[in-house]
Amino acid sequence: MIQSIDRALRVLDLLKDHHFGLGVTELSHRLGVAKSTVHRILSSMEDHGYVRQEPNNGNYRLGLKFLEMQQYVLKQMEITAIARPFLDDLSREANEIVHLVEQQDFEVVYLDKVEHHSNTIRIYSRIGRRAPMHCTGVGKVLLSHLTDSKLEHYFQNVTSRKKFTEHTLTTKIEIKDAITRIKDLGYSVDNEEHERGIRCVAAPVFNHLGEVNHGVSVTGPLDRMDDQRLEEVIGLLTATCGRISKELGYQ
């Protein structure tokens, strides 16, 4: 990456984590670069609206340009608008947390989350957050729809697969065996593989080309998601994914 761009992005990453902003000296210290360099970066980004300087203390904060950019990003995320009514219905019917995710760089990214009002559990997920593919229901279902070459590319590039619980699948053989079962069933189950006490079932969403880049999951506590309830939820989930896929043009 070009050094100046890398430094500018690192500045933005630091500012997003500090609501009251940071000054030139503090940024210089954290980045390990000269204050004059930091000042040039900030001045350029301020000219374009990506940062703004507080008049009372001189600290820099993220600028309003990001609100404008957010609107463009949201407009481009058409699938969230299409899927949301179906996710709402699924969450009400299942009375559990529902997620819509996308595969990016061999990780899953949570695009949307619907939580029924009577649900009391709190889990890892958050919109925009990333999670591994090997230990999540949606991750495994997306892995099952990769081509053979892309799946091999995944194993070559994601060599460190963390074991979150005693149930987490980490070896290539374990994951490939799971993928074979998922292909046969058409859905994936996460049995406490990412978080203890949490069970999840996930299914794929097909686009108009028959490709799978997204998945939907239903997540709940193990004591509610017993085998009988899981079968009921699977029916609701697969029907929902079918409806979303149809809306996206899948035949």
Name of the top-level CATH class of the largest domain: Alpha Beta
The number of helices is: 9
- Radius of gyration over all CA atoms, rounded: 21 Å
Number of domains: 2
Compressed to H and E, one letter per element, the order equals HHHEEHHEEEHHHEEEH
Average predicted local confidence, pLDDT: 88
* Largest sheet geometry: 6 strands, antiparallel
- Helical proportion? 40-55%
Q: What spatial order of strands do you see in the largest sheet? A: 5-4-3-8-7-6
Using the 3D structure, state the CATH architecture of the largest domain. Answer: 2-Layer Sandwich
Characterization of the model:
Helix content is 46%, strand content 19%. By secondary structure, the chain is α+β, with helices and mostly antiparallel strands. α1 packs across α3 and α5 packs antiparallel against α9 (227-247).
Summarize the structure.
Helix content is 46%, strand content 19%. It is an alpha+beta fold and 251 residues long. The protein folds into two domains: 3-68, Winged helix-like DNA-binding domain superfamily/Winged helix DNA-binding domain (Arc Repressor Mutant, subunit A, Orthogonal Bundle), CATH 1.10.10.10; 77-247, 2-Layer Sandwich (Beta-Lactamase), CATH 3.30.450.40.
